[in-house]
UniProtKB/TrEMBL annotation:
GO cellular component, as recorded: cytoplasm
Keyword Cytoplasm carried by entry: yes
Cellular compartments annotated: Cytoplasm
Main location as per UniProt: cytoplasm
Protein keywords: Cytoplasm, Disulfide bond, Phosphoprotein
Database matches in Gene3D superfamilies: Immunoglobulins (2.60.40.10)
Gene: Obscn_2
Tree of life domain: Eukaryota
UniProt domain Ig-like: residue ranges: 3-86
Protein name per the record: OBSCN protein
SUPFAM superfamilies found in the cross-reference section: Immunoglobulin (SSF48726)
Length: 86
């Protein structure tokens, strides 16, 4: 059983203007096959035309495209027992 990844670089708050992209990033202690999930409020996010979810090694990023006022809220990233929010 592999040790669980932990979050070593936490999410930072992002302020942006309507119509712009918002980028959130965090870094894990190691690459993991464990399920990592992004949330807007309580809603799990998927990669689609509005959201881009990227994983590059230990860096996980979320890009919210052309944000609107409805996108305002808490973004969180969870992996295993660990989470970070902005």
């Amino acid at each position: 059983e592999e040790p669980a990844a932990t979050i070593v670089e936490r999410l930072k708050d992002v302020a942006t203007y309507e119509g712009e992209d918002a980028v959130f990033e965090c870094r894990l202690s190691r690459e993991t096959a464990q399920d990592a999930q992004w949330f807007l409020g309580d809603v799990p996010l998927q990669s689609n035309e509005m959201n881009e979810i990227r994983v590059q090694g230990t860096r996980h990023s979320l890009i919210l495209r052309k944000v609107t006022l409805e996108d305002c809220g808490s973004i969180s990233f969870k992996v295993g027992q660990h989470s970070s929010a902005a």
